[in-house]
Amino acid sequence: MGVDIDIVSDRCDDYKYSFRNVDIYGDPDVHPNGCCGHMMNDGDGPMKGCNNACLTPLFGGVVIAVMATFDIKEGSEVLGSYGDGYWKTRRFFF
Questions:
Q1: pLDDT tens figures, 37-65
Q2: Per-residue DSSP letter, 45
Q3: Are 25 and 8 in contact (CB under 8 A)?
């Protein structure tokens, strides 16, 4: 049974991270322990806050890690920039 990439792409496009020539999709409905980077919000977006993390490509982009830029208190939201390109396509928020 194959995966229809167009269906996955349309459903998860808001959860896409592009690095070089590779698009990586996070599924917002899947939350394995230790792998919830796709739940990170952007403090520069409509939920204004101070970004406290960044996305960091590791091993040539094979793995994308969420790295804290300073201590994050337990129970606080992890916020990191989605990049200018993300918000340019979503001007209706502002």
A1: 777 888 887 767 889 998 888 887 777 78
A2: S
A3: yes
